[in-house]
Amino acid sequence: MWKERLLEYMRSEEYRPSTVQELCERLGVTSAADFRAFVRLLNEMEDAGDLVRTKNNRYALPEQMNFIAGRLQLKARGYGFVIPENEAEADIYILQTALNGAMSGDRVLVRLREERGKGAQAHREGEIVKILERGNDRIVGQIAIYAHHAFVTPLDKRFPEDVFVPKDAVGNAHDGQVVVVELTSYPTATHGPVGRVVEVLGYPDEPGVDILAIVRKYNLPEAFPEDVLADAERIPLEIDPAEIARRKDFRGETIVTIDGDDAKDLDDAVHVKRLPNGHYELGVHIADVGYYVKENSPLDKEAFRRGTSVYLVDRVIPMLPPRLSNNICSLNPKVDRLTMSCVMEIDGQGRVVSHEIVPSVIRTAERMTYNDVRKILEDEDEELRARYAPLVPMFERMRELALILRDKRMRRGAIDFDFDEIKVRVNDLGEPTSIEPRPRSIAERIIEEFMLAANETVAEHFHWLGVPFIYRVHDEPDPDKIIHLNLFLHNFGYHVKGSAGGKVHPRALQEVLNEVEGKREARMISMVMLRSMQQAKYRPECTGHFGLAAEYYTHFTSPIRRYPDLAIHRIIREVLTRGSLSPQREAHLREFVAEASRQSSERERIAQEAEREVDQLKMVEYMQAHIDEEFDGIISGVVPFGLFVQLDNGVEGLIHISELSDDYYVLHERQMALIGERTRRVFRIGDPVRVVVIRAVKEDLRIDFGLVEHLREATYVGGEGPGAIVYDEDLTPKERRETERRRREAASRASGRRERDDKRHRARRDRKGEARAGVRLSDWNDGEEERSAALGDMLPHELPYDAWDEEYPDPRAQRGRKRGGRGREDEARPSADGRIAGGRFEAASTRRGGYRTWPTWEADGGSGRGARTSGNGRSRPGEKPAGKRKSEAGKSGKRGSRKKRKR
Asked: What Pfam families does its record include (predicted)?
């Protein structure tokens, strides 16, 4: 009662930050009991981040005081982003020095600073002022055991500090093993995290330990609790005849499932037939999991917690126990199964002219695979056509209808990114044996179109009923991304129509894809466009699906492996059987679908990250057997520190900029290219290249390539637009010879200059004694070049500029940078000789013996942690070492020094 009234008052325009007494007076809190309850409410809301309290004990909403609550996501180099709980808010960039003890995954309260950057590089910056909820209580890492204690180095690079483990908390772990530690003390400004070993996974090179470590890292629940298994055991494996009698019987229809070869959880089946009026009848029959998984039962609570099944290369972590997912709920052939059916009448234009959504019972005729259906329809395999002769006419009708539905979808403006799926195959020991791109065949397209039709039909039906529901939504792209995409397309002579101000219809994007189809820049433009899209999510409001150009969309077709599908199945049955919902039930369901949408979106994101990391792990392991071998690939990303290249088999790695030794290369954002300063040589997204595998490091999930040959040479001739870059294949023989001559001369000059620079760097290090500090030029080139989530979800240009240098330092990019001055704490940059130029530099911190330690940096005119660290690297933060430091030379107060600095 008090909470709703309090929030309503605080959101009013008249509200000003108020004390407890003022709030009580305004809200009519008079009795002592009410006052105590009201104070408890204020404390709870403050702890949850719903309210903030000022220094003079006045309360206000966070947004009124420039605070925002959100979830912290750290990057490998220590900085991070806070994703606000309000989806309308942009992400907030957090410096490593502004974390204040927060760890990746924590729910935090952020105080906003000023917005930095302009245009596409503009980003909000903040400082974490309060940790509302810890996101992790366990960390996976490799243990190093000493005489009286141990340290666990996290495998997750987002946790940069080692965990101290007392000797009596090591358990059965042995030195070098991968373990799970439970945190007993979180990091603060004065000490690092402390924990105890709770599980030993094994040595890193033992079969299965690598994937198991990722499972633990993402806290993916493998084993089901006892009460959940007991709940599953109570479900009968036979269907009650009385329940069959209450349902529509489709057992007389010819119904099939079409899935992958190794699929066990078969949750969708289809049938297609022609009606007397020439229309098609499409039946999509989905396993009625909600009939077995009752609301608030142990099975339901566990499914809600898991959110989704997770598919790793060698295992599946199911949302439901196998007794349901692989048995009574799986639509196995030639057995009766309970389903929820959406039967649609579709005309020759792909329009759904009528539909029926009904609880049903089916018996599938065959368990078909994508490969077999593809061979029947595309290869016309005689043996398979003879084996499935009674079904072949239906498969051909399915193809007809699928093409009609797709044509209708494309006409309304849906976007179709036709990228191949990558399949990693492993042996019994978990070792990768092959990596195979798997193109979508007609069989996959049939099921895809049928499921899309059912999802849209169900979503529209229940949207107009106005009942609480979970929708699958895909928001419009960020206007800044569309503006940047248009600038990029302008280089090729293309334009997204109707995109003034960054607003765009999906049809306009598909028109660009149609226009570039078959051209050499097609793949490049498709990849850049895909990265301009938002991520789809679940929401209780029906706001449409941009990519599908659908006004109504939901997920109805996979209740065995997705919780939103299971939840709406129960809502559908309740509405169909009762006809309407009571006000109390409707209010409860509205609260439930909001929470289920949030939880399911979060669990889907975690599952996707885990699946991608396992795939990348096995790809790295696969490439370890191919060191020094050459492969053809496509440039898939261009960033200041080099080129990402995707091989024909789907493996992706980095050509570090240091490998491009013929010139100094600079990122041209509008061209989405690295361009040589002297040669004007161009490396651009989508260009074909031949590379050699230099190294593959499992610990860093990193594959490094060297450039063997650029298979589509081009030259930057200046300016912007279609004529700014000219490909050699478009030049005359004479122009091509002249271009090659200029490149050779420039490369020779660059090589000589680099050699002179290296000599100067070595001499300077010898003079200044920097070799004793362990600073080498290679320290900057051999840093961790991982493709972080920021690069996966955003274009490279959208990373804050200073984040580029912090995560991927490149010494050559620092040439000519002015030294000296105190600067902002994030403006320090390593110069070419490894020293710090201007401001403080946040070196990667480690934990040793409970103290924070940093490498011994020598700062030029800066004031940073390097200046406060003693020679042995073991001083505490803020502890001033004995003796005068060079970084303090400017504080002597001499006029001459100040005048010199002014000049």
From this structure: CSD2, OB_RNB, RNB, S1
